[in-house]
């Protein structure tokens, strides 16, 4: 490969190139398991307009320099989900990432493209989606299981309930979220973000008749909904705004609140330990988290866990991180009755008040004033007089089971 | 500068040295703290998972209390926990997006005359150091530079993702601030794989082995890259990385011995404060045994001298 003098942020002036065309360096990870050789990086110089995609760049290198570059692609328009890759370490679609955008994120003036993570590489940028992604999809029964007998004509459902599942329906199965899932990195058996988002597509669908079974199955699975570590990697990775982690949180909410599934992974108990601690004290009483999450202080599992935590507890006491007093007598907030009242009011509401920015449009009033007073002032003038439609009904339809 | 200060739960619970070190360091940085001691837990994402309206209402109440202090002269709200930053910003994003939704949530606050008005500025201590105090100002305050101390940054998930919600951009490279602060304090940044990965704490009571393997991998990666210590703006990460480190070491079968400092402790050391004053003796992995504090803070003494 020829070297280039990177004078302006890695791109040359390219005086001899047609107007608007710039030169970019692609640094591709090459690997062919059948060759018996280790993976290596190879650089290719490409010339394109900066608004063209990284995929266009790879295809130019493939057409002009090395036909053996392995890349999977089809629609080139962020619809088919074939060209999931890691660009400068970030997962995404190669066809949906401008060269200029990739350059802006580059640390060394080159655009590094690697295959997605958490899946075995077949060749170069092509990963084995069957081995991981599709297998996990199949794990969650990804089709509708309607109640029998089927209606003679169509199912009639509330409009809001279908609007609610559009977010999980937007998934194009590209695998970007699977690529960077931090739970899966450590626990390869984790069902993972894409398959769990797909689960919500059916748990959120009023036509499906197996919500309880789907949820109980994934709540009891040690690699199911309670194995998500809430790291936001999938939210950041998804090119279509599916926010798989948010869908996992909704599965947990519906499992524990609507179906009262008390799972063997402590998921429901841990949720309630935190919710009840704040209700009682206003803050987290950490000393109670372990016993409460394991079934209460008198539960054998809690005793076992506390016993195994003894060395940690002892060190914490010795270092005066924790004192017996602070552990046993948790401070209550001065205005705790206010907190309790909010809990009561929210609990008394029929259905759920939810606001999902994927479905709802934000107010159109933003010119980002700087001070608090200005913002408050600006706000008054623009407040919409009527609550937006669908706000309170968003999930009422789901509290059917 | 004067801030409406939200310390969070863990900094007053199992990591009391965090709250203590902020209280000790703030006056030296010229930050006056007005503590929001009537505010409640941010919910750490779990209350939002249980009920979005509940989490948004509790945090709207905290924001309204902060705005009362702002009206009385505080400049903005400051938190000292990555998880608080992320969980509160998530609620604020919804509250700020829709007047109708905000009105509905504010109904829970009216009996006490509280009201959240759109547009609160709520910044983690890390953001305050870079955006409000400024790195040059911070650099000028250093009296005991962290010479030869090799520090691995550990952000925690909630303060770096999602980037658009947290306003991370080329203008605000908030995902590089820890590195910038370490360098401003005279230390050396250690580049390792785990800096922006998950410590595993959120699943430590559900999937303990996965959780501790996560912590173990990052601590081990940092050690392999020659770090003397890690620094984190998140007390929940600190629980998994420091308090649980002996168990984490057993889980991954490796003697890790990696001290983990809270961000204000690292700042305090560079400003010449004594390790004890910053609560460094309260850590499970005592940084005092592996770092020489005498004139400048030099890493790799004692057990790590070969590194």
TrEMBL record, chain A:
Catalyzed reactions per annotation: a menaquinone + succinate = a menaquinol + fumarate
Determine if Cell wall biogenesis/degradation is one of this entry's keywords: no
4Fe-4S ferredoxin-type domain sequence ranges: 216-248
Query: Which cofactors must be present for this protein to function?
Result: [3Fe-4S] cluster; [4Fe-4S] cluster; [2Fe-2S] cluster
Ranges for the region named Disordered are 358-401
Task: Report the domain of life of the source organism.
Answer: Bacteria
**Assigned EC number:** 1.3.5.1
Pfam families, per this entry? Fer2_3, Fer4_8
Tell me which PROSITE patterns the record gives: 2FE2S_FER_1, 2FE2S_FER_2, 4FE4S_FER_1, 4FE4S_FER_2
The entry's keywords: 2Fe-2S, 3Fe-4S, 4Fe-4S, Iron, Iron-sulfur, Metal-binding, Oxidoreductase, Tricarboxylic acid cycle
Is this entry keyworded Lyase? no
Q: Which SUPFAM superfamilies match?
A: 2Fe-2S ferredoxin-like, alpha-helical ferredoxin
Look up the record and name the pathway of this protein: Carbohydrate metabolism; tricarboxylic acid cycle
How is the cofactor bound, as the UniProt entry phrases it? Binds 1 [3Fe-4S] cluster.
- 2Fe-2S ferredoxin-type domain sequence ranges: 24-117
List, alphabetically, the InterPro entries matched.
2Fe-2S_ferredoxin-like_sf, 2Fe-2S_ferredoxin-type, 2Fe2S_fd_BS, 4Fe4S_Fe-S-bd, 4Fe4S_Fe_S_CS, Beta-grasp_dom_sf, Helical_ferredxn, SDH/FRD_Iron-Sulfur
- Which family is annotated? Belongs to the succinate dehydrogenase/fumarate reductase iron-sulfur protein family.
State what protein this is by name.
Fumarate reductase iron-sulfur subunit
Q: Which organism is it from?
A: Patulibacter brassicae
TrEMBL record, chain B:
One protein family per Pfam: CCG
InterPro entries the UniProt entry points to: Cys_rich_dom (IPR004017), HdrB/HdrD_reductase (IPR051278)
- Specify the Cysteine-rich domain's residue ranges: 3-86, 154-242
What start-end ranges are recorded for coiled-coil regions in this protein? Answer: none
Q: Which UniProt keywords apply?
A: Oxidoreductase
Which PANTHER family does the annotation name?
COB--COM HETERODISULFIDE REDUCTASE SUBUNIT B 1
Name listed for the protein in its UniProt record: CoB--CoM heterodisulfide reductase iron-sulfur subunit B family protein
């Amino acid at each position: 490969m020829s070297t280039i003098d990177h004078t302006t942020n890695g791109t040359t002036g390219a005086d001899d190139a047609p107007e608007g065309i710039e030169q970019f360096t692609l640094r591709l990870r090459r690997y062919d398991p059948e060759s018996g050789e280790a993976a290596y990086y190879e650089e290719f110089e490409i010339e394109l307009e900066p608004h063209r995609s990284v995929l266009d760049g790879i295809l130019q290198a493939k057409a002009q320099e090395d036909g053996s570059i392995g890349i999977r692609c089809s629609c080139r328009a962020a619809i088919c989900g074939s060209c999931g890759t890691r660009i400068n370490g970030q997962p995404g679609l190669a066809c949906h990432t401008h060269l200029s955008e990739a350059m802006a994120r580059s640390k060394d003036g080159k655009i590094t493209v690697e295959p997605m993570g958490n899946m075995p590489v077949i060749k170069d940028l092509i990963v084995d989606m069957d081995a991981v992604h599709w297998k996990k999809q199949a794990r969650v029964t990804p089709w509708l299981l309607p109640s029998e007998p089927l209606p003679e004509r169509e199912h009639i459902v509330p409009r809001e309930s279908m609007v609610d599942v559009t977010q999980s329906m937007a998934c194009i199965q590209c695998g970007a979220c699977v690529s960077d899932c931090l739970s899966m990195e450590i626990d390869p058996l984790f069902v993972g973000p894409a398959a769990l988002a797909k689960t919500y597509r059916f748990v959120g669908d009023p036509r499906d008749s197996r919500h309880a079974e789907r949820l109980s199955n994934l709540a009891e699975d040690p690699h199911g909904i309670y194995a998500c570590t809430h790291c936001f990697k999938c939210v950041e990775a998804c090119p279509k705004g599916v926010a798989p982690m948010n869908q996992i949180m909704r599965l947990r909410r519906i499992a524990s609140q609507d179906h009262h599934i008390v799972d063997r992974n402590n998921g429901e108990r841990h949720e309630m330990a935190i919710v009840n601690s704040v209700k009682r004290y206003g803050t987290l009483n950490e000393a109670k988290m372990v016993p409460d999450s394991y079934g209460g202080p008198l539960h054998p599992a809690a005793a076992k866990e506390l016993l195994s935590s003894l060395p940690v507890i002892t060190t914490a006491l010795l270092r005066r991180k924790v004192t017996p007093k602070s552990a046993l007598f948790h401070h209550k907030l001065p205005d705790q009755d206010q907190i309790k009242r909010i809990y009561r009011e929210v609990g008394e509401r029929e259905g759920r008040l939810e606001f999902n920015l994927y479905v709802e449009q934000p107010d159109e009033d933003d010119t980002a004033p700087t001070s608090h007073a200005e913002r408050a002032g600006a706000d008054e003038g623009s407040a919409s007089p009527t609550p937006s439609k669908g706000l309170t009904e968003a999930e009422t339809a789901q509290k059917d089971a | 500068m004067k801030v409406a200060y939200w310390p969070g739960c863990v900094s007053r619970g199992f990591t009391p040295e965090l709250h203590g070190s902020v209280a000790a360091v703030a006056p030296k940085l010229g930050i006056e703290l007005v503590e929001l001691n009537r505010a409640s837990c941010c919910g750490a994402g779990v209350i939002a998972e249980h009920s979005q309206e509940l989490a948004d209402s509790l945090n709207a109440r905290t924001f309204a209390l902060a705005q009362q202090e702002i009206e009385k002269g505080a400049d903005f709200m400051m938190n000292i926990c990555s998880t608080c930053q992320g969980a509160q910003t998530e609620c604020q994003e919804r509250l700020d997006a829709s007047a109708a939704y905000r009105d509905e949530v504010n109904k829970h606050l009216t009996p006490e005359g509280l009201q959240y008005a759109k547009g609160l500025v709520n910044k983690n201590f890390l953001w305050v150091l870079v955006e409000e105090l400024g790195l040059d100002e911070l650099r000028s305050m250093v009296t005991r530079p962290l010479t030869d101390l090799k520090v691995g940054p550990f952000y925690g998930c909630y303060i770096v993702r999602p980037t658009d919600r947290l306003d991370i951009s080329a203008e605000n490279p908030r995902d590089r601030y820890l590195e910038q602060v370490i360098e401003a304090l005279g230390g050396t940044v250690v580049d390792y794989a785990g800096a922006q990965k998950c410590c595993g704490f959120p699943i430590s009571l559900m999937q303990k082995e996965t959780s501790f393997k996560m912590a173990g991998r990052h601590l081990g990666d940092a050690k392999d890259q020659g770090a003397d210590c890690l620094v984190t703006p998140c007390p929940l990460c600190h629980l998994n990385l420091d308090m649980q480190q002996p168990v984490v070491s057993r889980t991954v079968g490796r003697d890790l011995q990696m001290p983990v400092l809270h961000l204000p402790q690292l700042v305090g050391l560079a400003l010449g404060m004594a390790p004890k004053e910053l609560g460094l003796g309260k850590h499970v992995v005592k940084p005092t045994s592996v770092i020489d504090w005498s004139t400048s803070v030099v890493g790799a003494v004692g057990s790590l001298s070969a590194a």
